[in-house]
Amino acid sequence: MAHDYLIIGAGPAGLQLAAFLERDGADYVVLERGGGPGTFFTRFPRHRRLISINKVHTGYEDPELRLRMDWNSLLSDDPELLFTRYSRRYFPPADDMVCYLSDFAARTGARVRYDTAVERVSRDADGFTVTDRTGTVWRARRLVVATGVSLPNLPCVPGIELAERYDTFDPDPESFTGQRVLVIGRGNSAFETADALMETASVIHLVGSGSLRLAWQSHYVGHLRAVNNNFLDSYQLKSQNALLDGRVLAVRREGDGFTVPVAFERVDEVVKDLRYDRVIVATGFRFDASLFDGTCTPSLIVDGRFPAVTPVGESVDVPGLYFAGTLTQGRDFKKATTGFIHGFRYSVRALYRALRQLHHGEPWPRTDLGDDPERAVDAVITRVNRSSALWQQFAVLGDLLLVAPDGTLSYAEEVPVAHVPHAVRAGDFGPVDAHAVITLEYGADHDRVDPFDVTAGRTSQQDVRGLDGRYLHPVVRWYRAGAFVAEHHLTENLENEWDSEEVHRAPLRAFLAARLAPAPVAP
Description:
Blueprint: E1 3-8, H1 12-23, E2 28-31, H2 63-66, H3 94-108, E3 112-113, E4 118-124, E5 127-132, E6 137-145, E7 151-152, E8 164-165, E9 180-184, H4 188-197, E10 203-208, H5 215-218, H6 230-236, E11 241-248, E12 252-254, E13 257-264, E14 270-276, E15 278-281, E16 285-286, E17 300-301, E18 306-307, E19 321-323, H7 341-360, E20 366-370, H8 373-386, H9 388-392, E21 397-403, E22 409-416, H10 420-425, E23 434-441, H11 461-464, E24 473-480, E25 483-489, H12 501-516
């Protein structure tokens, strides 16, 4: 007998989708290779401190607003299932996440088969066949892969196999005492490792190509976070550590250490041989597609690191194969929060809604607003001031203000922005003459401005209230018959409160009124 849904992986994304399906009494099963939920967090990060913030004291009573500062909780109606109840630390221990996910699985009743390692996936006209390590065969009409990125993304460098890998090396700092260490990579895992070794290693170098991107400037939380950048201080203050801007050409074992030739980018690729006692490679992870046979091998993107998916998470070339969680970040790689719990928890909810609509005839949730434009203004203002989904998945998820042929209005929440044109054309929201997409976004070139430089990006008050607001702010884009018509930016606000009558509501009201006004009748 085939299940409606089979989910591979009981990490945060798999459990999030399972919780939604369980609430509906859906026919599904989750297969997890580990002995419990969230086994990724039993090993990562290696130095056991999460960089996803956990702000317990926000000053907000509204649980939706609190989720803006809670990057670890999954979505649930159970007030006990908030990560803030498991740790008070701003950057909590990874073991607390393991405990949280275990309780989430138990309290939501997620139907998970643990110690079930999937080894092969195939597809035929009736759906998917999944074979586990024991030879047990599972059948499903639709398959959702939520395994995360499990393979090291190793650079193509001769001798790289001689280096220790971030996912397997012994992180005990004492074993590095007095040694010269090279860390290949310049992401958070590399800096986390360097930071942990600064008290014991004699010299630490980090090496990588291109300019270092800092999260506080790019607004991408996967770029280097301040919590991991003490190493930059030690470099610039000449404390025997250095950041090397260049390419590793090889890793060669010589005697009891290594020689590593590095081509330096700042000096026209001049190559210098550098000597180290230890070399660690920390260059990220990639998707393991080896489970799929030739009947359902999905296309990959971003140098083969992630599956190519539609805006709702379906494989672009294998119908019925869906992905959830960090695997879906390829579409907006290094631009949004889809690769992290506080982003993909909402993308999983959007996937769930898309599945219910496509396969079970359940429409995307909408609120009827009648024909009063003021109710549209209220709806937009309320949502941009309260929504955690629009806040966390900026420019990726958007709300829709929908105008039917008879002029009545309705409001749909948290639709993937890139999915909107297809959904409107397909009639997923009924007959629509015009619609607005409401998002929260950073301004143009926001990542090219140093926010701490008071002379950079200086604008007039008129500019700030228009298109030059570079901090996060609401954007309303209007479409008629599928074609873009106009856009309106609500002025950014220090407290992220866009509810001033003069500054926010009145300009929005005027914008919507102009769009909703009946077209003049030709004589």
